[in-house]
Each structure stands twice: as C-alpha cells, then as structure tokens.
Amino acid sequence: MTSIEQQRAKDLGGLQRRIRLVMLLDTAGQAGLLPIPILRLHTLAYLSNVLAPVWDMPALEGKVLKRQGGPFYPALQHDLDRLVGMGVAVILGLDHVLDEDNRWRLEGSYQLNRPFADRIVDRLSDFESERRLATFLQELAFAVSTLSDDDFDQAMTEDATYSDPLIGVGNVVDFAEWQRRNYSANAARYFDNLLPGGARATPGEKLHLYVRHLHSRVHGGR
Amino acid sequence: MAAEGDETNSLGSWAGADFAGTARANFGVGADADLPPDVRFLAGVAKLIRRRMAENGAESDPARLAVFLLEPNARAPNAEAPPKRVPMLDNGLTSVTGRLWFVSPVVVSGKYIELDEADDDALFAIVTDTLALGQVPAIVFDPRPTIPTVRFYPKGLSDLEKCNAVVISGADVSLQQIYEAIDKVYQHCLVTPEAQARAGKLWVDGSKWWPSKQAEDVVQLYLRAGLTTAFPTCTVRHEQTAVPGRLDLEIEQSDPLDRGKITRHAVLELKVLRSFRSSGTTVSPTETLEWVESGVRQAASYRDERGALAAALCCFDMRNEHTGEKCFEHVQELANSLIVELRHWFVFGTSEQYREFSTSGG
C-alpha cells in the first residue's frame, strides 16, 4: 500500500468512527441516555463492536485495551473531541479527573448539538447501510437504557468478553481482529434456542436478553 | 444450561449460566424492533399497564391518571422536582398512576414526574402548555372507572379528537377480531397503490397487474404493524421456523406475571395470488390453485406444530380478475377437515380499477 493509500485508509477509518459516534449519540438520545458521560459512551461503543455480529454486521473495531475502569478508545475520544470542535457535539459538566494510570483526562458528558447534527443524521438516513447500522445501534441503546447508572458503570466487570479472566488488565481484548473469541455475541446468539414455546429469538430480542443477563450478573445472578 | 465448545461458539466465563431463566423472564422484549416507533410505544405501554395491573399491590396504586409520552428525554415543570428514572420499568413493579412518564418506543425504562393536579384538564395543560409537548404521541391510562381505560393519542394531547381506545384486558383474540384488524390494514394501506407508503409498494406496475417481487414481505410488514396496533398486549411474530417450514405470522400473548407462559392465539398463512410475476410473465391458474392448497396445508401444520388455537389462510388477491372467494372452492372441503379458515382480500392495481369496481356494485 502506498503512503497515499495508507493516508486515505486512515482518513476513511476516522470518518467511519465519527459517523458511528454521531449515530451512537443520536440513538442514545432516543433512548433517554443523554447527556452521556465519557466512559459510558466508550462502553456503549464497545458493546456496539462486540455485539455487532448479532445484527450480522462486522465490528468497527475488533479489539480494545483492557482497563480497570472499562473500555476506552483513544482514537474515538480524539474524534469525539473533534466533533465538539466542529460544533456537532457538546460537552457538559466539563472537569478533569485522574485516571487509573495516574494521568489527567477530561471528564464530562456528551450530547449532540442538534442544529448541526440533525443535518448529518438526516443525510446518513439516505444510505441503506447506515439505516441498518442505526437500527442496530438504536436497539442496543434501548436495551442498555434498562441499566441504572451504577449498573452501567459496573457492566464491564461481567461482560462475557471484556471480563474474560484469561485476559489481564493492560492486555488487549481481541474479539474480531486477529482472533474470533467473541463470547458476548455467542452468548446473545445462544438465546436463540431458549425462548419458551420454541420461538426463535429476533436479533432485537438477543440484544435485550444479553443486556438483561448482564444486569442479572452484575447483581450476583449466574 | 450452556456448555463450552470451540472458540467460535464458546461462552467463556458465561458457560453454565442460567440463560433459560433470563429468556423466560424477559420473553418478547425487543421482538418488535422493526415496527414503527408509535406502534412499539402503544404495545409497550399496553403490556406494561397489563402487567402492573396483575401485580400484587397494584390495587393500592393512586386512583389518578397515568400519562405516557413518547419522549425519552424528560422535562420537568419545575427544577425543584427533577424527573426520577426507573431503569427496569417493564418489570411492572413500579406504580405508574399519578405520574407523567417519559419513555422511548420500547417502554423498558422511563423517567417520571409526580402529577399532583386532581383536575384532568390542568394535567393535560402541563403537557401541552407548560412542557410544550402537545404534539408528542401520548397514552393516558385512567384507573378510576370500574373498567380502567387506556386512550392513545397518536398526534399528542393537543389533538384530543384523534384518540383511539386501547384494549388491555388480555381477553381472547379470535379470528373474527383478527379479520377486522386486517380489514382496517387493507382499507388504509393495501387496497390501492395510493394507500401504500412509498417504501412499501405492492406493485411494480399496477396498471398491468404486475405485483412487486416483495409483495408477500410488504403485506406481512403492514399486517404485523396493524395486528400489533389492534392487539397491543400480544406479540406478533413473523417467519418463525417450524418443522413444516417457515410460518408467516403468529399472534401470541404472554401471561402478565410470567412472560414465559404463552398463549398462541393464531397462526396466519399469507399468500399473494398473482396473474403475473414482477417481470410480466404469467402465472397459470393451475399454479394459483396449487398455491392456495399448499397454504391450507401449511396453516394446519404450523398451528399443530406451534400449539396455536386457530389457523387461517389469508389470501391477498392481486390477479387481474376479481373472482371473490372462488379461489377457495377447490380447497373448501380440505380446509373444513383441517379446521383452517379461509379469507380473501382483493388488491387493486390502480385507484381507477377500484373506483370502477366500487361503482359497478362490487
């Protein structure tokens, strides 16, 4: 790949992430989750990657560094800050906190700046692939809206993939990059054969059931 | 119980988890993801109210209105009483009356503010005037009459004339009621191309009687939305895999206290009858007769396999000749013996055809 092609691929990746971010914030808003704190937004982004196969879609990012405080995508955060700079998103309750690595990072909650963002969301809805992605992200946001703030913050301690005891903090959780070890999507699909009366679960039901089971585990269920 | 397998199916640390318990407790949530938001909102609120009314202790809930708004981002009339969030609203454990609810279309979680106004008009004014949310789809649950009422305002509380009563009693869903619901869908969405939404057209060229290749899917989607609206406490499933094949629609209802306990009211086999394919090639009358007969047998098989209470073959006739129920003559005896009901709706290729038929005594 030439340097020009590499640059194009990088630009395309950044554009896809920003589109995903706008959609995540839009769908979170329709689920009543806004303004959404930084780390919860990263958790939602992680879930949108790890559960994408349930909707028969590829993960945008197939791996993430395992941190004590939950998933955090530096590139996504960079894109998010760019969206704020462009006026597409706004940050509320801005503050600084010392993270687990003893580094200062921004804290705050995000939401879309509707007058600017609506035009982007409307344009995206013209594309079949983006409509499909939006439907998935929307249902995921609806499912996640059943978690209380505390449960949301605790969710990654029980997520089937992120909490894999074989992967320690500081290592990479790889579920769709070099490996195919996606316990979360497998668990969601596992519900397919378990509905009462022999019904087959729809993709939407699988997302909701996964999050309900996650909730149950956060509260000690197994 | 889940078991560990190879990495492609492994459940990791979730192996051995009680997945079945979760599936049973939350059966049906998210099954309607492809339906319009207002239909999901109606079904979600109806199921929630039915569930709440069945809970022990619900009889001591305040005898005041509950107002649900399809607006997930809550607004409060005054800053001193911010909205309170209920993350698992759909479990039916939270009293809903005497409160103004802000919910998303799935009604699995919500935020509320207390409604202190005893006067209904003042309460509605909070929504329309104070909060300026009079255009937002709303559902009002009134527990005060002997038989509590639920009213759906699809255009919001600013348009009180546009109001539909909602049945939440969970009474039997008969085939007759199902046909009435299909009649409404037919009249509003199917009868002529003008009635069909741009994204859901049944015809490639109605003037030539060329149906779309996706006609069955389009009919199915319209019916799912219409049947969910008519029976909001039921779940209308489609394309369920059964031993005899894939059934088209089934209408099932969960027990309000035990979602895993299901009554399957009916299975519906949908068939589109054509004179032409989407490309214009003809479909022979023999093919149509065989198509109808296969529908009768499928409906009976699916009903028996799924344990449903009733079965019907619903034909949407897109042929160029209106012959009424004649398409069923050759299967009437078979249908009687298999206890499958037969119904027929004629779909016009153009509104001119419809007018001509209507004015000629059809």
Short description:
The complex is a heterodimer of chains A (222) and B (362). Chain A has 222 residues and is of the alpha+beta class. Chain A is built from eight helices and five strands; from the N terminus they run αβαβαββαααβαα.
Task: Provide a descriptive summary of the structure in words.
The complex is a heterodimer of chains A (222) and B (362). By secondary structure, chain A is an alpha+beta fold. Chain A has one domain. Chain A contains eight helices and five strands; from the N terminus they run αβαβαββαααβαα. Chain A has helices spanning 3-30, 38-50, 74-86, 114-124, 128-144, 149-154, 183-190, 203-218, and strands at 36-37, 63-65, 89-98, 104-112, 172-174. A three-stranded antiparallel beta sheet of chain A has the order 1-4-3. In chain A, strands 2-5 form a two-stranded antiparallel ribbon. In chain A, strand 3 and strand 4 form a beta hairpin. The radius of gyration of chain A is 17 Å and the shape is globular. Chain B is an alpha+beta fold. Chain B folds into two domains: 31-165; 175-359, no CATH class. Chain B has helices at residues 19-25, 37-54, 120-130, 175-190, 215-230, 285-306, 332-338, 351-359; strands at residues 66-70, 84-86, 99-103, 110-114, 138-142, 149-153, 164-165, 203-205, 210-211, 235-242, 245-254, 262-274, 311-318, 341-346. The model of chain B is unreliable at 1-6 (pLDDT under 50).
Strand content of chain A: 5-15%
Distance N to C terminus of chain B: 59 Å
Gyration radius over CA of chain B: 23 Å
* Helix and strand run of chain A: HEHEHEEHHHEHH
- End-to-end separation of chain A: 48 Å
- Average residue pLDDT of chain B: 91
The number of strands of chain B is: 14
* Major sheet: arrangement of strands of chain A: 1-4-3
Shape designation of chain A: globular
Low-confidence stretches of chain A: none
- Strands of chain A, total number: 5
Query: Roughly what fraction of the amino acids of chain B lie in strands?
Result: 15-25%
Task: Spell the H/E element sequence of chain B.
Answer: HHEEEEHEEEHEEHEEEHEHEH
| Overall morphology of chain B | globular
Strand order within the widest beta sheet of chain B: 2-4-3-1-5-6-7
User: How many domains make up the 3D coordinates of chain A?
Assistant: 1
For the report, how would you describe the main beta sheet of chain A?
A: 3 strands, antiparallel
Please tally the helical runs of chain B, counting DSSP H or I stretches of 4 or more residues: 8
Q: Report the C-alpha radius of gyration of chain A, rounded.
A: 17 Å
Question: Would you tell me the overall average pLDDT of chain A?
Answer: 93
Total domain modules of chain B: 2
